[in-house]
Every structure is written in C-alpha cells, then in structure tokens.
Specification:
152 residues, 5-stranded parallel beta sheet, 10% helix, 23% strand
C-alpha cells in the first residue's frame, strides 16, 4: 500500500511545485503551503511530517528524515512598547529562501531557520537547529548547530 500512496503523492506534487524532478519519495503528512514556488530536483525525497516553506529550493540526491521544520520568516520584535503579536512579520527579501544543495542528508527533527544555505554534500545531524549557513561537506549537529567535522 505504501508504494501506491507514495506514487499518488509524487504525482500530485509534480503538478503543484514550480519544479519537480524525478522525486523518489514524498512521505505522509508533509506540509508545504500552496507549494507553487517550491523547487526539488532529481532523486530527492521529503520525509514524513516535514514542514517546508513555499519558496524552498532542494537539489539532487537530498535525503530528508522525518519532521524537518523549515522557517521562512520571523516576527518583528524591536518595539518594546507594542505587543510582539501586533508588530507583524519581517519583510521578506527577494530571493531570500532556504537553499539545500545536492547530496545532503538531513536527519530527523532538524530545524532550519530562514534564509539558510545548506552546502553540497553536507550532513545535518538529528535534532540540529541550523541557524547559520552550512559549508560544503560539513557535518553539523547541536543547538545551535556547529561543525563537527568535514566529510573530505
């Protein structure tokens, strides 16, 4: 049954996403808003219960564990005289999306903050909170995520 339901989810996202290559998996309960600006390349998969912003770019051969949470905006907090809930969201800059390069492995329950660039061949350890860009071939983990070592 899993193969048929995955095929159906992949079939649907190919008609929704801005760009959708030969995607291998779209697991259950994935949230991506309207998805019209999402780009995902060949042989990449989306893990179960992932939350993706509408403007994320995902390269080739990307493996996502379950419960990846990608943030696309923040709330304004600069005016201490005004409740934060009335200050609104930060304005989004053009081209300020999350970019995940080719051949990246993202472990379970990772959080990626807005405007991050995840370098080619990198590994994000389970539970990492990625608040800075990740260089190519880096293995990062922790909260906040720090470089543990490099793959090469």
């Amino acid at each position: 049954m899993g193969g048929v339901s995955n095929w159906l989810r992949v079939f649907c996202v190919k008609r929704i996403f801005k760009k959708c290559g030969n995607v291998t998996t779209v697991n259950r309960n994935v949230y991506f808003g309207n998805g019209c600006e999402i780009e995902i390349d060949d042989y990449s998969g989306i893990g179960a219960n992932c939350v993706l912003p509408n403007d994320i770019r995902i390269g080739k051969y990307v493996m996502m564990g379950p419960e990846l949470y990608c943030l696309s905006f923040s709330h304004k907090i600069s005016d201490v005289e005004k409740p934060m809930c009335f200050q609104g969201k930060e304005d989004k800059e053009a081209g300020a999306c999350i970019v995940i390069e080719d051949d990246v492995w993202i472990g379970a329950k990772v959080i990626i903050t807005k405007r991050r660039h995840i370098g080619k061949g990198s590994v994000l350890a389970a539970g990492a909170v990625v608040s800075k860009d990740v260089p190519d071939y880096a293995i990062v983990g922790g909260n906040p995520a720090k470089i543990i070592k490099y793959r090469k």
